[in-house]
Input
Amino acid sequence: MAKLESQGEFLIAPDPDRAGLTRALRGTDQTGAEVEIAVVEERPLTIFLNSQEIVTAMTIGDYPEYLALGFLKNQGMLGPEDVVTGVDYDDDLEVVVVRTAVETSHEEKLKKKTRTSGCAVGTVFGDMMEGLQDVRLPATELRASWLYALASQINRTPSLYLTAGAIHGTVLCQQDRPLVYMEDVGRHNAVDKIAGWMLQEQVTAEDKILYTTGRLTSEMVIKTSMMGIPVLASRSGFTAWGVEIAREVGLTLIGRMRGQRFVCLAGEERLIRDIDPATVPEEAGKHRRKSARKAE
Amino acid sequence: MAKLESQGEFLIAPDPDRAGLTRALRGTDQTGAEVEIAVVEERPLTIFLNSQEIVTAMTIGDYPEYLALGFLKNQGMLGPEDVVTGVDYDDDLEVVVVRTAVETSHEEKLKKKTRTSGCAVGTVFGDMMEGLQDVRLPATELRASWLYALASQINRTPSLYLTAGAIHGTVLCQQDRPLVYMEDVGRHNAVDKIAGWMLQEQVTAEDKILYTTGRLTSEMVIKTSMMGIPVLASRSGFTAWGVEIAREVGLTLIGRMRGQRFVCLAGEERLIRDIDPATVPEEAGKHRRKSARKAE
Output
């Protein structure tokens, strides 16, 4: 059986002390005493694909270029045939423009659809499901010992969550090594930033694992699948549709990871149980993100 | 000093046993043993305002009519001058249509804007901020004893969260009494369903408190303010922009409510400290939703 071991360093880790990501705010506690607490920032960022405005996302504001690239990629608006010629971020305008060599097919599609249906949200969603129909993920093996090693390292890494709370984290991992750890206040921005980094760095997806603190909703499952990553693991729980999509596309889906425990609802046949869970230490209180409720 | 007391019953409480809200899914646990767990459903619901498609929301699927009404109200697309003549839900098509006596001004605006800017998301967001400029909430008093009484009752109420996890809850309260408890997998659907119920039932807002399990982001603060509710309280943390908006519109903002503890970052002057926090029991493990981390 494998042992838990930590190796290597993050390529990108959270930088909780970076200026502009948190703000010290004064208030009072339950006793009426004045307190000053660190609170995460939240800023609007409007993403353009060439001259077409696509969406306004709420983000902590780090890595706007990765966020824009990853969002467009995950929505199926940037395909393998599209050549990105530039990503320009304007801090003052809170705008990021992704430029491609030729107008993408999606841009034209979006213009047409919004004229008839009125809103791109439905369109975007429909296109995501459409893009998923051809997706079959590789049957990459997953070792249980990697899951425990990853959770242990990620929980101990200094982060905005530990500093200020009210934020989600997503980590791109390879075997038992966490590589890129992104956090964001916006629902799926953390995963989009990872997608942007992967696109920029031309990173392979088939040998990666995505770890998230958030729930395994359909949107998280779709994004992970669109990124070509064959394993998605989370501390949180599942939704039925998320599980259904994971089973269809061949995504290994692990949820409710807390201490020794986890549940696998898709991809059991690719999971190698190489470690006795009883030998894994339970989470120390200070590393817990959520309580280990009996009901779960 | 006031004592904790529970009075009255919910007008609407979660119904975790209702068919169609959860599904039993089979998987394996960390030991490889087969397990069957309850997982929340997640379905798309497309909301129309008359003939105009507005958005596709992901929802557990209870109360689609309240969700549609509340979403449109909170986005400023339904104003006090708009007369709702019908709300039609089609289960098969997963569509809900809100009909008004005359075409609303927002519909026309949306058609125009989407032609020029391409996507209604930015538009919707801009309109929410626009709608907020005239909002000044009434200086309603809040007693600390109510907060403790509400948290205690809400945490003990049977819910989808306790059955299946991976879901958010929002509760409309009056003084120390929780009235309407909505849950949803979608980010802000729970609060939109409450807004829809309030609109339908013509409920006053100025004497209410909104309790949520989710983070106090700008969007939650904006929605609460648009609903005219002067107090927003949460187990979770804050974002800086959420606090900023709360201070501008006069919303009393309470976060990090766990056991005896809470933090007030806006509206301190309206908070009446009528109870000694030391007399409040700490949360029992089984009622906790998230751990009481020292860092928080």
Observations:
- Residues 1-7, 112-124, 290-296 of chain A have pLDDT under 50 and may be disordered.
- The CA atoms of residues 57 and 155 of chain A lie 27 Å apart.
- Chain A touches chain B through 80 residues (CB under 8 Å).
- The radius of gyration of chain A is 20 Å.
